[in-house]
Design a protein that fits this description.
The relative contact order is 0.04. The protein has about 100 residues and is mainly alpha-helical. The chain is rod-shaped and about 110 Å long. It has two domains: about 50 residues; about 40 residues, no CATH class.
């Protein structure tokens, strides 16, 4: 009986070790896949920022600022550029009258 019990314990021990090795290799496969996915997402993000970075405001855009690419900000920047641009006398005199 003790020999039978000893054989069973040895077999259970072997099964547990095989089970742990199997799951360790599967977990490594999952970790490798997650690493590949994160690299792919970073590459896509870099490609999108490179495409978006070709505009004139790309040097001024702060990547940490979530509003850097908003339409309101683009409109405000265009307005600021328009205000900073030199004006003719006609624009200076008559635009104020038209805006009122």
């Amino acid at each position: 009986m003790t020999q039978d019990l000893s054989a069973r314990l040895h077999r259970v021990e072997q099964q547990i070790r095989a089970f742990s090795k199997l799951h360790a290799s599967e977990l490594q496969l999952i970790l490798d896949e997650l690493t590949d996915i994160s690299k792919q997402m970073e590459e896509e993000k870099a490609a999108e920022s490179a495409v978006a970075g070709t505009g004139p405001d790309a040097a001024q855009a702060d990547p940490a600022d979530p509003a850097a690419s908003s339409p309101k900000r683009a409109k405000w920047l265009a307005e600021q550029e328009r205000k900073a641009a030199p004006k003719s006398r006609r624009e200076l005199l008559f635009r104020e009258r038209d805006e009122k």
